[in-house]
Design a protein that fits this description.
- There is one protein chain.
- The chain is of the alpha+beta class.
- 20% of the residues lie in helices and 40% in strands.
- The protein has 3 helices and 6 strands, in the order ααββαββββ.
- Strands 1-2-4-5-6-3 form a 6-stranded antiparallel β-sheet, with helices on one face.
- α1 runs antiparallel to α3 (53-68).
- The chain is globular.
C-alpha cells in the first residue's frame, strides 16, 4: 500500500501498532474487502511446534477490521470465531482475505480465509458494529 493512507481502513491500519509490530502488511483494501500478509516467526510458534492460534486469529481479525472499517464510520468487532483447518509453521507466509457478506443498519458480517499458498489454514467469521460516536483514546463503549 502507499505510504500515505487514502482510505479509512488504511488510516486505521496505520495506527494499529500491534499488527504492524508483528510484521502484518496490508496488501489490498477496498470497500468491504482487505488482503493482509504475515510471516510466522519463531516467536509465534507454540509448544507443539506450530503457529499459536492466537496469532492466526490476530491476522484474521486485522483483515476483518480493515474490511469493516473501509466504509468510513468507526467500526468494531461485536463477536468473532475461527475454525483452525490446518497447522501453520515457522516461516510460513499466510495471507488473510476478508470479504463482506452483508451490512444491515450498524451491523455487518464478514468472512476471512487464511491461506498458505492455496492451502486453507483457517476460516474466521466476524460480526461488526459501527459506533454512533468515536470514543476518546482509552475510552470504551458506544
Amino acid at each position: 500500500m502507499s505510504s500515505a493512507p487514502d482510505s479509512a481502513a488504511e488510516a486505521m491500519f496505520a495506527e494499529d501498532k500491534a499488527s504492524r509490530r508483528l510484521g502484518i502488511e496490508l496488501l489490498e483494501g477496498g470497500r468491504g474487502t482487505a488482503v493482509l500478509r504475515m510471516t510466522v516467526t519463531s516467536d509465534m510458534v507454540n509448544g507443539h511446534g506450530i503457529a499459536h492460534g492466537g496469532y492466526l486469529f490476530l491476522l484474521a481479525d486485522t483483515a476483518f477490521a480493515c474490511a469493516c472499517n473501509s466504509h468510513g464510520p468507526v467500526t468494531v468487532a461485536a463477536a468473532a470465531d475461527i475454525d483452525f483447518v490446518a497447522p501453520a509453521h515457522e516461516g510460513d507466509v499466510l495471507v488473510a482475505t476478508a470479504r463482506e457478506r452483508t451490512r444491515f443498519g450498524r451491523s455487518g458480517i464478514y468472512d476471512v480465509s487464511v491461506l498458505r499458498g492455496d492451502e486453507l489454514i483457517a476460516e474466521f467469521r466476524g460480526r461488526s458494529r459501527s459506533l454512533r460516536t468515536v470514543p476518546a483514546p482509552g475510552a470504551t463503549g458506544e
